[in-house]
Known about the structure:
alpha/beta; binds 5'-O-[(R)-(carboxyoxy)(hydroxy)phosphoryl]adenosine; 44% helix; 5-stranded mixed β-sheet; binds zinc ion
Amino acid sequence: MSTLVLGIETSCDETAAAVVEDGRKILSNVVHTQIPDHVVFGGVVPELASRKHMEYINRVTQAALDGAGLELRDLSAIAVTYGPGLVGPLLVGVSFAKGLAWASGVPLVGIHHIDGHISAAYPEHEDLRPPFVCMVASGGHSTLAVVRDYGVYEVIGQARDDAAGEAFDKVARALGLPYPGGPEISKLAALGDSMSHHFPRTRFADSLDFSFSGLKTAVLNYLNECEMKHISVNQADVAASFEQAVVDVLADHTMEAAKRYGISRVVIAGGVAANARLREEMQKRCAALGLQFYAPSVGLCTDNGAMIAAAGYYAYARGERAELSLNAVPNL
Ligand code: KG4
Ligand code: ZN
């Protein structure tokens, strides 16, 4: 008999629900993005996000069940993101999932958002099995991990300051581009010359940790200087050079990790993994080193319910169950 898991994700600005069979087959995947609601503020407004999640969570979940042709009672488990993320938005998903679990008697499983991102690669890659090296780059995280087994991670590199996605968003804002900045920078960068500026790539001796704040500051300083001296800025060139610097750092660290730990599979995950330049570079470098490269399709890189359902399947299979006392943990 197959295991059917409903995944619910509300940690930031996407209200998302999906049903995944046996951790690998996506039966439905519904995402309601709040980007149009937050764009006028230049970033996510937590209180507004909470209210929008409340407005949409029921409809999005119903659409996910309908899309899979299932009723609540057909489910094996309900998986929900309980951290890290914004406390109000997380509480909406957690409370809703607890209500569903209590009303239906279906077991509840609490999922770490990053476990979700890492698990996004499973549904589309039948052959992907741990161990692998995973580089997770999102709005809040730049994390390099060795995935020893499903849900078993050894963190080998972390952001010491700004996360990769955060740097994209801040540089985009300085260039006058709307939120979220990643996709906007990427579009603009495609028209520019990535060799036009050499922005810094920070490395800490033997560490695989990341730092993007120096890079961000270098770009902002350049833009300020141009403004003060009334020099016109080629925005596409700046975007392309900045993007290349981020891509180089992420790719260098990931390749180094694979070599150091003797692991032949490489996975990228998180919103920044949607970046075309990063995907291309990782693919190229993995091929050169004889490593197998996996990336979720673009829609599964940014926040979604399918990744939570996939992670939920493995947690459920390990026997993990959450009590109805499960709480949102913003800094999990
Ligand atoms: O994983 P995600 O949807 O949410 C978090 O968990 O943070 O990631 C969102 C982040 C944002 O910073 C956004 O600018 C970035 O991912 N992003 C991208 C691209 N698409 C989204 N960054 C670079 N290139 C992209 N194409
Ligand atoms: Zn995320």
